[in-house]
UniProtKB/TrEMBL annotation:
One Pfam family from the record: NTP_transf_3
Domain MobA-like NTP transferase: 2-149
CDD domains associated with the record: MobA
PANTHER family: MOLYBDENUM COFACTOR GUANYLYLTRANSFERASE
Gene3D superfamilies xref list: Spore Coat Polysaccharide Biosynthesis Protein SpsA, Chain A
InterPro entries found in the cross-reference section: MobA-like_NTP_Trfase, Molybde_CF_guanTrfase, Nucleotide-diphossugar_trans
Species annotation: Kribbella ginsengisoli
Keywords assigned: Cytoplasm, GTP-binding, Magnesium, Metal-binding, Molybdenum cofactor biosynthesis, Nucleotide-binding, Transferase
Lineage: Bacteria, Bacillati, Actinomycetota, Actinomycetes, Propionibacteriales
Protein name (record): MobA-like NTP transferase domain-containing protein
Length: 175
């Protein structure tokens, strides 16, 4: 399990998005609760107080973007299927995480579509080998596009679901 939580939260005026609270629980703790069945969990970003034990990693350099975060997160753990989620998925559930893993099948990955039908690459399960190969293809991961990382992978997607909705603005918390 890799949880990306190293972004600058620029659309939130620099407020740490991972620590925003919805219904009394921080966004990062909501994600960590949904992923509690993982054998190992690494959170990529600055260390914070969270609801359960996790390992911590930092992208190189800090603030180097989500692809650099993915590269850092993959250095920890050995599971053949890696669930990759961003910390801003407050509606993801343990059942959805299980569906992600089960949905990989023979493909490189299986992810969630948000309620608007957009592919959420940072709400998906991937074969570790596919992620490692994709990272090799793009070279230095700093500030590389997530879309570019996953280009060419054999991916399948869920039906649109609220679990795939991320929080990109204050208005998203009011939904």
């Amino acid at each position: 399990m890799v949880v990306l939580a190293g972004g600058g939260s620029t659309r939130f005026g620099g407020v740490d998005k991972a620590l925003l609270v919805l219904d009394g629980v921080s966004l990062i703790d909501r994600v960590l609760t949904a992923t509690k069945a993982a054998v190992s969990t690494v959170v990529v970003g600055p260390e914070r107080g969270v609801c359960r034990a996790v390992e911590w990693a930092r992208e190189d350099p800090p603030g180097g973007g989500p692809v650099a975060g993915i590269a850092a997160g993959l250095t920890i753990g050995r599971a053949p299927v890696v669930v990759l989620v961003s910390c801003d998925l407050p509606w993801i559930t343990a059942d959805e995480v299980t569906r992600l893993v089960d949905g990989v099948g023979e493909r490189d990955g299986f992810g969630l579509l948000d309620t608007d039908g957009r592919e959420q690459w940072l709400a998906a399960a991937y074969r570790r080998t596919a992620l490692v190969e994709a990272l090799k293809r793009i070279g230095d991961p700093q500030n590389k596009s997530v879309r570019r990382l996953f280009l060419g992978l054999d991916l399948a997607w869920s039906k649109p679901t609220r679990a795939g909705d991320d929080v990109d603005s204050w208005a998203d918390l009011d939904d």
